[in-house]
Design goal:
This protein is an all-alpha fold. Helices cover 76% and strands 0% of the residues. Keywords: Cell membrane, Membrane, Transmembrane, Transmembrane helix.
């Protein structure tokens, strides 16, 4: 049991390390691609890679399960990334960074309401508040001023809720025992399918000549093979082993990975506020992961969730 949990934690950490660096690749690709083009190409590359790795067809145990996969593809691939990309055109990236930290909270509440198979503990809520303060300091470390942008911020909140729904759907799908690669590939299929109408709305261009440029090709392969194919499989695997709540807590680490990557790749300085934010975020993560089973904690959590 301990080995399975360790593998689950390792899988979540690897996923977050890669996802935390995707902002750099996306920023580079935006010089030659639109957001919808990046989204479409990365998931097409991802689904091709998964098909090559595990070409066997997914056989459903129940025809109703197909609807779960379709909803997961719509939420986790199409809607989440579209809402996030559109939000970034209306509001600051730092705003989106802080708002995305609400994902574990939404996930915990939805899991409790709909699945009721992962208990909520007081340390989760304490850790959430501490980590949120840390992420706020990381995102607003003196280089930008906090500005409310209602449209963009509300879209970012909607994106986090959509990802939380995806986490719940993935948890439900994992309980059926499907192969993780096959399940992820099916989610990608529906994500791409629902994405097609958006291609006509956002001026999508195939323009394969852009792939000749090494910098574009490398970053698209990184997003397609790493951030999509590998990370969605490893994330879904982590949810299967740890549960949606414990896995979602690792999202707190994304801003930390992004800051460190920016220091290495973009040579951005580390401010004292960002350093304090990293410390608070890690503290919040450890608090959320801690095993606290006191009766008082259970009473307080029950009070919060009723």
């Amino acid at each position: 049991m301990e080995n399975k949990l360790s593998v689950g934690h390792l899988s979540a950490i690897i996923t977050i390390i890669i996802w935390g660096t995707t902002y750099i690749s996306t920023k580079i690709l935006l010089n030659g691609f639109s957001p919808i083009e990046i989204l479409f190409f990365r998931f097409v590359i991802g689904i091709i890679a998964l098909k090559m790795i595990y070409p066997y067809r997914l056989k459903f145990m129940d025809k109703q399960h197909e609807l779960l996969f379709a909803c997961a593809g719509l939420c986790g691939v199409t809607l989440y990334y579209l809402l996030e990309n559109i939000a970034l055109t209306f509001t600051l990236a730092s705003n989106v960074g802080v708002i995305s930290a609400i994902v574990p909270f939404f996930t915990a509440i939805l899991i409790y309401l709909f699945l009721k198979n992962e208990p909520l503990r007081m340390n989760f809520f304490i850790g959430f508040i501490v980590a949120l303060l840390g992420i706020f300091l990381i995102s607003f470390n003196g280089s930008t001023n906090f500005q409310l942008n209602p449209v963009g911020d509300l879209l970012a909140v909607a994106a986090t809720l959509i990802w939380a729904i995806y986490s719940v759907l993935t948890r439900k799908i994992s309980s059926y025992g499907y192969n993780t690669i096959q399940a992820t590939r099916r989610v990608f299929f529906y994500g791409i399918l629902f994405m097609i109408p958006a291609l006509f709305l956002f001026d999508f261009k195939l323009d394969l000549e852009r792939f000749v440029q090494p910098v574009y090709l490398f970053n698209l392969l990184f997003l397609g093979l790493g951030a999509s194919a590998l990370c969605f499989v490893s994330w879904n695997f982590a949810i299967k082993k740890l549960g949606a709540i414990k896995t979602s807590i690792y999202i707190y680490l994304v801003p930390i990975i992004t800051v460190i990557t920016a220091m290495i790749v973009l040579h951005e300085p580390m401010t004292w506020m960002a350093a304090l934010g990293i410390l608070l975020t890690l503290t919040g993560l450890f608090i959320s992961e801690a095993k606290i089973n006191t009766k008082r904690s259970k009473v307080l959590v029950n009070g919060l969730t009723k």
